[in-house]
Design goal:
By secondary structure, the protein is an all-alpha fold. It is built from 4 helices and no strands.
């Protein structure tokens, strides 16, 4: 027999984060592949903030700010690498046939927006 005295009558709730994560991933991919910088930046920021919210909501971290800033820093490093490869500052080929430089700029910009947004929200909320 199971003890049902501790069960609650509240129905289980679903989290909005998986839909937002998928939307951010799709928007960032479309923006990066089609070379639409605002869509790429918005999608990456939405993806990073949604993953951060999902992990925070599930109590895996106590504060979302270091994780959000970490995502931003990762975007800056990866974007800078793509930009360096696209402008031939590292050996990657010639003439940037894939538009790596502009894609790198979009990813760096998304990282900076994520870092600044997380820092501003952290200090506004105390």
């Amino acid at each position: 027999m199971t003890d049902r005295s501790i069960e609650t009558e509240q129905p289980p709730t679903s989290s909005p984060w998986p839909v937002l994560i998928a939307t951010g991933l799709v928007l960032s991919e479309v923006g990066i592949l089609v070379d639409l910088l605002p869509i790429a930046i918005g999608g990456l920021v939405l993806f990073a903030s949604s993953v951060t919210g999902f992990i925070t909501e599930s109590d895996h971290v106590s504060s979302p700010w270091p994780l959000a800033i970490g995502f931003g820093a990762l975007f800056v490093v990866l974007g800078a690498g793509l930009y360096a490869a696209g402008t031939e500052q590292v050996a990657a080929g010639s003439d940037d046939p894939f538009g790596l430089a502009t894609r790198g700029v979009a990813i760096v910009a998304a990282g900076l927006v994520t870092i600044v947004g997380a820092a501003v929200l952290r200090y506004r909320r105390g």
